[in-house]
Each structure stands twice: as C-alpha cells, then as structure tokens.
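Supplementary Methods, section 5.1.

A reviewer requested that the exact input to the structure prediction be made available. We therefore reproduce it here, unchanged from the version used in the analyses.
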Amino acid sequence: MTAIGVPNPGWTFIDWSYGLSGSDPTNTFSVNGDMIIAADFGTTFTAAAAGSGSVSVRPAAALYPCASQVAISAAPDPGNYFALWGGAASGSQNPLPFSITSPTQKVTALFASVPAGQASLTVLAQGGGTASASPQTNKATIGGTVIISATPSDGQRFLGWTGDASGTENPLYLLMDTNKTVTAQFSRVPTLALTSASLPMALKISGADGDVWTIEASTDLRAWTSLLTVTNFYSFPVFFSDQASTNFQHRMYRAVLH
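The structure derived from this sequence is encoded token-by-token as follows.
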C-alpha cells in the first residue's frame, strides 16, 4: 500500500509516526495485520519582543507539529518588566503555555519600564516542570512578598531554585527588595515504552520539552545502531516505528540525550 501526506495551506509535512516512520511524504508499506499510521504536519511559529527584553520558546524548532504546545518566556532587561502578550496570545502569564493550532502564528511580548517603588519579577523553568508566582504578577511593590511554586511534570522531580533564589523550599516566599529572576530546575528523565507488542515494533518517548533524543537499537547491548533523532514537545510524546525490527529475533532500544 502507499500513503501520501498532503498538507493544508500553511502547513508542512514533517514525518510519519505510529506504524510508519521516515520523512518522505510518500510511503509504501506492507500490511500484515491491524495497523495505525499517522502523518505529522507542522508550521512555523514566531515570538518577538516589543520594548526592552527578550523572548524564548521551548522547544526551539523550525516546524512545530499541529496540536503541540510550547512554553514562551519573556525576560525583561534591567529596569523593565514584562507587561503583556500580543498577537496570537493575550494576558500576562509568564512563562506562557501556548498551543500550536493555526499556521504561522506570531506572539509578541510587550515590555515597559518598572514604575517607581516597584521591582520586576521573572519566574522561569528548566527541565520537566513549570513554575509560577502567586499572586500572578510580573512586578511587585518593593518590600513586598510573593510566593513562587515549582510543579514537576509526571515522572520528574523539582531539583531546586537558581538565579536570585536558592535551595529547595517549595513553595518559596520571596522578598521583593530588588528586580529578581528566579529559575526552577527540574529533572529530565525520559520514558521510552512500547505502544505495540506486534511487529514491526512501535514505541513512544516522553521527556522534558525541548529535549532532543537519538533512538538507538541493539541485539547484544554492546553495539548500538542509531535509528532516528526526535525532539520532545511540551506534553507531546513522540511515536515511531522500527520497520527493520522484523529482521531480528530480538532487539533492544535506548534513548540518548543530546
């Protein structure tokens, strides 16, 4: 049989997943039983800054799969604070979880000067988890206190605070005596699992957003062969199929972090 991945306007074919693999939009294959195949399509996504600050997107990619999520973080320059999102996003939550649902979406972060008597607050996360401030704010009265919390993703754990805070207290009461940037550090433990016990082998990998993995296979746990490289997206596992698994009596797999 032959399957062809045909994208809608604004989207680009990325690869096949579940029962098929490869990046050729035309895929010829044999059917030996029940089979699920999926064509993955992606689009570009742009995040820009307006004012004195910078914007980062996790994970960074040329194309983002449809329905995947990214985390957009706004980091103000000294003397400034993040005010609000514009374009395809709104509000002032930072970092901001954002779902890729339309082609070529663009988000803008607006920065402004910190008012007299106040200090800016930027709360970031690295690894498998999210961080937030309560009350939700990007600036606070000098001398006031905000509570910052770290929430690990499933299978991950909170490692501690870095930047303008330290230790592992969670939640953490933070005295706003000056502009502060605090980062919650989380573990990055992946999960590599079978999604089907029949041949060809179908697997999925879930890890921290933005992690890039090389999937390797071996028949003796000594010599390993690289199969493909995948990138984890926020709350979006990667599915793939090892079409060559039918050629082996047994085969083991592992994921190697770049």
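The chain has three domains: 2-42+190-257, 44-113, 116-188. These observations are discussed further in the main text.
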